Amino acid sequence: MFKIVADPRFTHVVPVLVPVDGGHVEQTFRATFRVLPTTEADRHELTTTAGMDAFLRAIVVGLEDIEDEEGRPLPYSDGLRDRVLDPIYVKLAVLRAYNAALGKARAGN
Question: What's the superkingdom here (predicted)?
Fold first, then answer.
């Protein structure tokens, strides 16, 4: 039975390849995503940084497993979301995780 949910959300682990001298180190966090209706998603221009930022602000509604430099957990806020999503490698990792989750949902239906 297929259920229609008014505001679908899901949480997935986001693997991020963080650049370091000579390569990358993988770090992860959990993101809670809001599934945008197609009409809303189509309004976002993902070929520009501003468009990508607006799209990410619309889909990311929660973050977990984020710590400061001393290892203290940081609670979710819009400011934290914007800080976490500032580096391009994080933006791309979040977009990959969101698209992969929706792609698997499509493949399974």
Answer: Bacteria
